[in-house]
């Protein structure tokens, strides 16, 4: 892994911008740049109110690669990400699902989870793990939550004047939670009880909100959840949701629907070597504008 002083590995954040659907995009990515802590270089040094580290689809496993997924390399890729997040003093880290990949046995799969979560804990602050379908291939949700020290699979919290919502779409159409190979990955849903909780939670908060989920809310299956349209309606009607952060679709993507920004982060597991890494830092400014600075293969965005 290279350090922040390695000029050969550093790429400056591109200043080229273009407009689509009223949204400003910044093209290109940054790699281990010397950004002053708690400042936002692309916005003339404006201090963000909250700074968040983002990773997704790490699929850590101690097993040989497939055609495009390099499971063992996740450790080195995340080590680079962790160094950047620590240097920039992120307030907390959100892992957007599929933290691990499947194993031949339950004990081995739990070992994968313990190993990679040990690495996540190296980043100071809170660590929020969103449930992805691969997180509960053999492991059950209670087993996963116990290992990562998290009480619930869906919940909300406040940080520096903003409201953050973690959703769990790892439920079958009949309402049963994923676990022990009892599901098809294309059948993902936010069940009625969680949907009702979401509506009440948004109504109760006084802050602008950011939603974190694994499967996509901005499209239909297979990558989107089956009741995505109903959940989007709840988000739009609240008038409080600034953005939705999601994973699952390893290519990454962006859409704006009903005034809400939907950002699908690129998978960390895809491709071999440091140049194929992908992670991001999200800053929310006092005027509620957002910048996502992508590193390596992750694209960068800025939204007013």
Q: Concise description?
A:
By secondary structure, the protein is an alpha/beta fold. It has helices at 74-87, 106-120, 141-148, 192-204, 228-238, and strands at residues 17-20, 23-26, 50-55, 92-95, 126-129, 155-159, 162-166, 209-212, 241-246, 253-257, 260-264, 278-284, 290-296, 301-303.
Please give the structural blueprint.
Layout lengths: L16 E4 L2 E4 L23 E6 L18 H14 L4 E4 L10 H15 L5 E4 L11 H8 L6 E5 L2 E5 L25 H13 L4 E4 L15 H11 L2 E6 L6 E5 L2 E5 L13 E7 L5 E7 L4 E3 L1
Parallel strand pairs: 3-4, 4-5, 7-8, 8-9, 9-11
Antiparallel strand pairs: 1-2, 3-12, 6-7, 10-11, 12-13, 13-14
Helix pairs in contact: 2-3, 4-5
Your description of this structure?
The protein has 304 residues and is α/β, with parallel strands linked by helices. It has one domain (47-303): 4-Layer Sandwich (Purple Acid Phosphatase, chain A, domain 2), CATH 3.60.21.10. Helix content is 20%, strand content 23%. The protein is built from five helices and 14 strands. Strands 5-4-3-12-13-14 form a six-stranded mixed sheet, with helices on one face. It has a six-stranded mixed sheet with strand order 6-7-8-9-11-10, with helices on one face. A two-stranded antiparallel sheet has the order 1-2. The two termini are 34 Å apart. Mean pLDDT is 89; it is low at 1-28 and 32-37.
Determine the number of helices (DSSP H or I, runs of at least 4 residues). 5
Largest sheet: 6 strands, mixed
Question: Which oligomeric form is depicted?
Answer: single chain
Rough shape?
A: globular
Q: What is the mean predicted local confidence, pLDDT?
A: 89
- Helical content band: 10-25%
Radius of gyration: 18 Å
The end-to-end span amounts to: 34 Å
Percentage of β-strand residues? 15-25%
The top-level CATH class is Alpha Beta
């Amino acid at each position: 892994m290279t350090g922040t002083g390695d000029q050969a590995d550093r790429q400056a954040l591109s200043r080229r911008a273009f407009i689509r659907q009223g949204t400003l995009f910044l093209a290109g990515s940054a790699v281990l740049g010397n950004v002053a802590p708690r400042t936002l270089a692309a916005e003339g040094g404006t201090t963000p109110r909250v700074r968040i580290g983002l990773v997704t689809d790490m699929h850590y496993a101690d097993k040989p690669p497939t055609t495009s997924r390099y499971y063992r390399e996740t450790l080195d890729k995340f080590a680079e990400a962790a160094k950047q997040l620590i240097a920039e003093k992120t307030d907390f880290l959100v892992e957007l699902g599929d933290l691990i990949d499947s194993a031949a046995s339950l004990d081995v799969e739990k070992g994968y989870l313990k190993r990679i979560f040990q690495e996540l804990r190296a980043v100071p602050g809170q660590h929020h793990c969103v449930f992805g379908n691969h997180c509960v291939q053999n492991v059950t949700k209670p087993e996963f939550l116990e290992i990562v020290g998290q009480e619930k699979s869906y919940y909300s919290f406040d940080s520096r004047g903003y409201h953050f919502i973690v959703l769990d779409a790892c439920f079958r159409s009949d309402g049963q939670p994923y676990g022990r190979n009892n599901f098809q990955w294309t059948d993902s849903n936010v069940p009625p009880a969680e949907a009702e909780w979401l509506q009440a939670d948004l109504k109760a908060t006084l802050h602008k909100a950011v939603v974190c989920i694994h499967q996509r809310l901005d499209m239909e299956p297979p990558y989107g959840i089956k009741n995505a349209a109903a959940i989007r309606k709840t988000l739009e009607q609240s008038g409080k949701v600034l953005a939705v952060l999601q994973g699952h679709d390893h290519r990454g993507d962006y859409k704006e629907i009903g005034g809400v920004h939907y950002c699908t982060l690129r998978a960390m597991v895809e491709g071999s070597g440091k140049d194929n890494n992908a992670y991001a830092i999200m800053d929310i400014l006092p005027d509620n504008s957002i910048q996502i600075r992508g590193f390596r293969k992750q694209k960068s965005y800025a939204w007013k």
